[in-house]
Design brief:
The protein is an alpha/beta fold and 377 residues long. The protein has helices at residues 61-73, 78-89, 95-108, 110-121, 161-166, 196-210, 213-234, 242-274, 283-293, 295-298, 300-303, 312-328, 334-352, 357-365; strands at 4-5, 8-9, 36-38, 44-46, 125-135, 138-146, 151-156, 176-179, 191-194.
Length: 377
Amino acid sequence: MPLLTAFGKTVKLVERQVFEPGRFGHFEVTAHVAEVKKCSCGHVTQASFPEGVDSHVQYGPVTQALAVYLCQYQLVPYKRASQFFMDIFGLEVSPGSICTFQEKAYNQLASTEQAIADALKVEPIAGADETGMRVAGALWWMHVLRTEKWTMYHLDPSRGHSAIESMGILLAFAGILVHDHYKAYFRYAALHALCNAHHLRELQGVVDRDCNHLAARLQRLLRLACHLSNGFRKIGMKAMPEVIYQRIASLFERTARRALAEEAEYMERVRQRLGRDKVKNTKAFNLFKRLVEFKDETLRFMTDLNIPFDNNGSERDIRNGKVKQKISGCIRSKKGAKWYCRIRSYVSSARKQGQNVFEALLIAMKNYCGHPLLGAE
């Protein structure tokens, strides 16, 4: 029956909730006691400790996983992570210990890194990108190879073939590789698809700089092709109808060739005016030439609707390197670069597969080996 109060009948109850973590300055200590016995013959026998309990005093896997989570996922420097443990838990964890935890995670995930590499080799479509990072005071290059399920990072002093091949994936990769037209990728046997987000930005630069109407027309054709591809994908089609593809591809090629010819005429006039044997190619000329020569790679997303229009997925995956550099500064050692790439590959792949990042790292910090990201210890 309805509740009655001094003000009348209660019509409903309104609830508000406040969530708080556990109290500050609190941590648990688990003591393991092993019984030692001596038999009548004088032989002394000691009971064994649980697996992983090797020192008289040590940090548990939760503390280790949290330290790796802070430094490798949240990109917190070691000293600030040490201060976090003191402020929140009242637990003194030195930066040196935190460094040791990173090395342990790196060693534990050796088989995981190989499993990720093997999975990427057989993927039908993958994206690749690279960006500069500071390692040990020098310019290195961070390479990424990724899909919607897997991510592999690699830091190397080189940007070119030696770095790509040291990843050990593209030499055996036979799928479709999406990238930003970095020429080193064309050395490998994969089919290639080019990032059209880059093409749209470069075309916009030509429009803003030269008021080039043909560049604007190429932009509209690319956007139309993207819009149509998204529509056909939503209704379950695997490829754009051939008649539509041929029409757009024909218009695109004719427009690009016309733009290239006009830019070549402009460069010839400049050469004659300056009285030189040759002049440097303009950015617009190089762009139009690339769109003509690599028309099939530019429009490949229309022939297979599983191919993305752009390479933004790779750029999102590689952005964490720039964020780390902004927050923590450069990576101070080559060893630290290896730690970062292997652990970050595991973390990124775990997140893509719907795993809780901290729980995935907790699994890694225990005596874990084998295939990653299955949620089993």
